[in-house]
Specification:
- This protein has about 270 residues and is α/β, with parallel strands linked by helices.
- Helices cover about 35% and strands about 25% of the residues.
- The protein has ten helices and eight strands.
- An eight-stranded mixed sheet has the order 1-7-8-6-5-2-3-4, sandwiched between helices.
- Strand 5, helix 6 and strand 6 (about 150-160) form a beta-alpha-beta unit.
- Helix 4 packs parallel to helix 5 and helix 9 crosses helix 10 (about 240-250).
- The structure holds S-adenosylmethionine.
Length: about 270
């Protein structure tokens, strides 16, 4: 087992994304807490809309629950939109969400290191918050480059190594995980600091943008809801969110609890 749960294949292809509940709960807790930072799906769609004509063939790699996929469908009006993920459960959610909005799109269950797509099949590709699950993200970038037409554009998106580090200190201070601050960043394989270098292994980088997002968890229950969705900590307390919230309330200074994360975007083209 890897020391980093985001790089542990048994977790990534097992508990983490077996259903869509954990990801939905995490996204919901973060959205509620966010007090600054642009909508990521909107930003991605905007970056590609500036470079990709309507009627393009578009891929959303590691699509998860399809939040970005839906935005791409709306903003880019693609001819073909293919959402790819290794999780069959998340693909069902993406397919259902596409269907509910009447957007055109298909889903493909595949590993992003071996995309079952022909060479030069797409005008644009997105890989948002997924390549940090690969110990070799450069190989996934090579696959994305292979699937793009020459001149086709990619938007690769990730977070900074120090994302949510404030929460490590809170978890440790509350006595819930004595090693919380010494665990590796979940984003260590693909992060804001190596985004440019890894993207440039197989694509020509046109632009890198960084934006800090700030989160205020309004109370201990809100913080507990988020903490139960992150695999970073080894919290042995039983009793679920209620028990965790009670402990946080007893042991920490009053809320709000603040955390930060830098979201980084690379826009690149296949030479
Ligand atoms: C945090 S979610 C990101 C979802 C989405 N892109 C977003 O921005 O909301 C990470 C996704 O990467 C997928 N994933 C992880 N490893 C993968 C692999 N080797 N091949 C394909 N998908 C993978 C997971 O199943 C999960 O849906």
């Amino acid at each position: 087992m890897s020391a980093n749960p985001f790089l542990d294949p048994t977790l990534v292809h097992g508990d983490l994304y077996r259903g869509d509940g954990r990801l939905a709960d995490r996204t919901h807790a973060l959205h509620r807490a966010k007090i600054s930072g642009s909508d990521v799906a909107d930003t991605i769609a905007g970056l590609l809309a500036a470079r990709v004509p309507a009627g393009a063939d578009v891929l959303d790699i590691g699509c998860g629950r399809g939040t970005t996929t839906l935005r791409l469908a709306d903003r880019l009006r693609p001819r073909q939109l293919v959402a790819v993920d290794a999780s069959a459960a998340l693909l069902r959610t993406t397919r259902d969400r596409l269907g509910a909005t009447g957007a055109l799109g298909s889903v493909v269950c595949a590993d992003f290191h071996h995309l079952p797509l022909p060479d030069s099949a797409a005008d644009a590709a997105v890989a948002a918050f997924c390549l940090y699950h690969s110990p070799t993200p450069d190989l996934a970038v090579a696959e994305i480059a292979r699937c793009l037409r020459p001149g086709g554009a990619a938007a690769l998106v990730t977070k900074s190594l120090d994302s949510y580090a404030e929460l490590d200190h809170l978890v440790q201070a509350a006595g819930l995980d004595p090693d919380a601050t010494s665990r590796p960043s979940l984003y260590e394989s693909f992060h804001s600091g190596n985004l440019h270098t890894i993207t440039a292994t197989h694509l020509t980088v046109l632009d890198i943008q960084h934006e800090q997002h700030v989160f205020h968890f309004a109370d201990a229950t809100h913080l507990a809801r988020y903490l139960t969705t992150t695999p970073k900590y080894r919290i042995t307390l039983t009793g679920g969110i209620l028990a965790l919230a009670t402990t946080l309330k007893q042991r920490l200074a009053p809320p709000p609890y603040t955390a930060r994360s830098t979201v980084s975007y690379a826009v690149a083209v296949r030479p």
